[in-house]
Amino acid sequence: MDATVKTVAITSSQPDEGKSTLTFGLGRISAMSGTKTLIIDGDFRRRQLSSSAMDEDPEFGFLECLFGECTIEEAIVKDEKTDLHILPLTADRHTPRDVFGSRAFDKLMDQLKEQYELIIFDTGPIVLMAETRVLASKVDQVVVVARWLKTNRASLKETLTILNDFKATITGVAINRVDMNKYHRQGYGHSGYGAYAKYYREG
Question: Best exposed site among 17, 99, 163, 178 by fewest CB in 10 Å?
């Protein structure tokens, strides 16, 4: 990844397309390469990243840190296998509207950028969650996750259109759970998901 990129959002069209798994995996790879990396659970509806990263609900997390109820250090959870840091979401916390559009969020991001070389957000599906669109307009790059033979092309096109409307920088589409034999036979890299990604990156 480009060294000038400090913030990345991982999103999708619909739930259950593998965003959290990709976020965790990219975070670990980055941390293992020596990059000081933080992943943030920004999917306020599902908290899948937080659930996957730890066995128990955390006492503090992203929103508590945002509202000044704890320090960054108190909210951070460290991955047991790597040097990756995680900023989770606590359970049963009311989420106010426009979190990513708030001054408090901008201030927190300024602090986090001083401490980390790469920050990756796991977000809610952009077609369903308005707050994800705001975040997408603020980060350096956005990766869209599509699930093999599940994500339909109309939904993917809608996702890319929304990102384009919000002036987001689209890095590309990551396709999950690919059957490589079918992939090569059907040529999706040229005429399917890959074609949409190429069009919107160049547009």
Answer: 178
Distance CA 156, CA 22 (A): 17
- Quote the CA–CA distance of 112 and 155 in Å, as a whole number: 33
What's the pTM? 0.86
Q: CATH number of the domain at 7-202, please?
A: 3.40.50.300
Sort residue 18 into left (φ over 0), alpha (ψ -120 to 50) or beta.
Answer: left
* Nearest Cα residue to 61 out of 46, 49, 77: 77
pLDDT digits (tens, 9 = 90+) for 107-143: 999 999 999 999 999 999 999 899 999 999 999 999 9
Distance CA 188, CA 195 (A): 8
Within 10 A of 22 (CB to CB), how many other CB atoms are there? 18
- The residue count of the chain comes to 203
Distance separating alpha carbons of residues 60 and 67, to the nearest angstrom: 11
Distance CA 162, CA 92 (A): 29
